Amino acid sequence: MSLDGLLAAGILQELSGVPAPGVTSLPRLSKRLGVEASVLLRALGQMGDDLIGGQPGPGWVRVERTTERWMVQLTARGQAALAALAQQA
Amino acid sequence: MSEDEPRVHEQRIEFYEGPAGGWGALRSVKEALLRHNIPVKGARTLLAANQPDGFDCPGCAWPDRNHASTFEFCENGVKAVASEATARRAGPGLFEQYTVAELSKRSDFWLEDQGRLTHPMVYDPAADKYRVIGWDDAFALIARHLNALATPDEAIFYTSGRTSNEAAFLYQLFVREFGTNNFPDCSNMCHEPSGSAMRAAIGVGKGTVTLEDFELADAIFVFGQNPGTNHPRMLGELRAASKRGARIVSFNPLRERGLERFADPQSKLEMATLGSTPISTHYFQLRGGGDLAAVKGMMKRLLEREDAGEQLLDREFIAAHTSGVDELLADLRQQSWDEILEESGLSLEQVHAAADVYCGAKSAIFCWGMGITQHQHSVATIQMLVNLLLLRGNVGRPGAGACPVRGHSNVQGDRTMGIWEKPPAALLDRLRDVAGFEPPRRNGYDTVESIQAMLDGRGKVFFAMGGNFAAATPDTVATWKALRRCELTVHVSTKLNRSHLVHGREALILPCLGRTEIDVQATGPQGVTVEDSMSMVHLSKGLNPPASGLLLSEPAIVARLAQATLGGRSSTRWLWLVEDYRRIRDLIERVFPDFRDFNARVDVPGGFRLYNGASERTWHTPSGKAQFFTHAIPRDTPVHRARRRVKDAIVFTLQTTRSHDQYNTTIYGLDDRYRGVFGQRRVLFINREDLRALGLRDGDWVDIRTVWDDGQERRADRFKLVSYDIPRGNLAAYYPETNPLVPLTSVAVNAGTPTSKSIPVVLVPHPVAAVA
């Protein structure tokens, strides 16, 4: 149940391809990745900067609630993490 | 109500014409989401998460079909999730802004509406405010109090029915190792009589049916239950049963829309055409507490038809599997119809009709709720229900059985885990063998006994794992006095509630994770397990980041408290256990053989069903058989006695009830849509003829006074009369507002459950000037 590295990488990759201003909705991201919403929500929860288990998350993504929907965005730290992943590959 | 009290709708009383569910439910869902700043369009993403990989709905204990339910359309489930996932926060700033005295003036709705608690708080008597405290200091404070007690029995450990199996197991382990069985729980206030009655009758204190049985039943009887508000997902099963032609027979003093018609928000046809499905084929509005008489009448009718030459009794089953039928049949033969009709409030034709539906069904399920359990004679009533099932072999075969519908989402699991003030010796033996300590053998206090113990000084530390004890319990004045006499009160909570404001000399609020939140421990994110009303055990894993980085999970709170309190006295590796909840489940498996291969079986989507002997016609009773019990129709209840005593006023039977915008003590809003009440809660439902008899009118205000014999005045003032379809002599009003009217000593025989559904009361006009 810990954060799935492949899924996290997939989320980062998908978010990096979102056209400006780089914000996408949660349902759209779920559809694009073909990942169940419950799985995606849990992963995003661990990729943000919230304190979980007393530790701050990596801050790779920002999830914001608007009146109508959840919006997801890649952060600068997320872009850096994605670049590091690309270098490793 | 204060100026800034939230009010969703203006106050009005307006007859509700629609079905349960339908567009009204969707509108209500939208309002609930917006209220808590949860995006409406994306909500389905969150709410559809009650799937094998998601979290268990923190609402009710009705099971999910394959645990992949249509959660997004369970209106009250949405309210529960939205309430927990709210963006609002009750942080240190709130507690700095208000003294406890000021907070105490606020409504229960306002308190909960402040949002999620974020920090551990300790009461500062000098300022009458809660202040931030560190977790270690909080645990040290509790440990200091516990270890200073003259005996462990001076501590009382309450459990809410939302507590997970893992937390509940650790909790009972800690408390028993500490040295007491003082485990009051919410079961004491709801389905304790079901357990007591059924264990004696069929050897298991739980329901015997599964959801699949609902697909096969020819008839479903619903006694004293309002699923439209309290278990909305049950309406889906009733709707499906109705559509395939099953008979659905409801017994309820109040006309409840959810038992009449339901529009499934998932059904495009019903939603598009504003259609709905009838639910009850028969609806019997009996007197409050008249169920035992009604069921006895049904049995008498069955027997009369049998004696007339029909073959309605399952004689083969009765001979092979039961004991005591001769006494029951003899009692039924001598039972007068006059008494049955007088006490049930039904006509002979109605009782016959109900019995004839039962006799015509090849298989039948009996469901019941707190309309059955919260009477003095509730255990007897449930045993009569079981009698009726047994007479036609309707236990332990497909499409048939008993279905006590539990309230809180893990109330049944908590009892399974040993949250029980009267633990069986076998459980204590297993704990001793597995955990290596000698558990206390004397029974502990149930909820009412706990209040009495705190009142007379035998209870000095009160620890609540969840819930809202001060609001949920009866005899509010006495209960609050009891809590205030404690040396220490501690509440593990997600939101601010009344119990935090009715506190002991020292007091703590310990904020915990909700079930929708990600719970990360040393080995990574964890899942917890729960057991639903049909004994299905499944895993629940949170999805949302915690409301605050300082929240601890309930298992972690128990472990750290145990470590702080027991220290080197315990050989249990508390902190190691909570690093990985699979370790807790391994320990559970060693104590409870029914949980063999626990971790493996719970990893399967949907989980597994616990062994249930009665479902397989194996009877774990002293005789080895299912037991018929013979009970007289009660003629000496508190209401009977009050009516004999009071001659100059009408003595009513008051039942407490929930509104559609609440779950137990949690108030989500001020509407009760299906009963036509909007923007208010201090209403009193009354029969129109009774209004005339009192010389009062719809909308008049009254005070309610209990008729009791201990010399104490119990009253609840300023209720607006609302004429309603309810039998004469009966009243209904919301709880917790009417809890002050329930005498502490008025409990179910052999169960101790407060008799909140049959309070003898009189009405007194409220001074008009005060209302204005």
Determine the number of helices of chain B (DSSP H or I, runs of at least 4 residues). 33
Q: Proportion of β residues of chain A?
A: 15-25%
Order of the strands making up the biggest sheet of chain A: 1-5-4
Let me know the average pLDDT of chain B: 92
Oligomer class = heterodimer
Assign the structural class of chain B, choosing from mainly alpha, mainly beta, alpha/beta, alpha+beta, or little secondary structure: alpha/beta
Attribute tags:
heterodimer, A: 89 residues, alpha+beta, two-stranded antiparallel ribbon, 49% helix, globular, B: 772 residues, alpha/beta, 33 helices, 17% strand
Describe this structure in words.
In chain A, 49% of the residues lie in helices and 19% in strands. Chain A contains 4 helices and 5 strands. In chain A, the strands form 2 sheets. Chain A has a 3-stranded antiparallel β-sheet. A two-stranded antiparallel sheet of chain A has the order 2-3. The longest helix of chain A has 13 residues, at 76-88. The two termini of chain A are 25 Å apart. In chain B, the strands form 10 sheets. Chain B has a 6-stranded mixed β-sheet, sandwiched between helices. A 6-stranded mixed beta barrel of chain B has the order 25-32-29-31-30-33. Chain B has a 5-stranded parallel β-sheet with strand order 12-9-8-14-15, with helices on both faces. In chain B, helix 14 crosses helix 18, helix 14 (291-307) packs parallel to helix 20 (378-391) and helix 23 (447-455) crosses helix 25. The interface between A and B is medium-sized, with 30 and 33 residues.
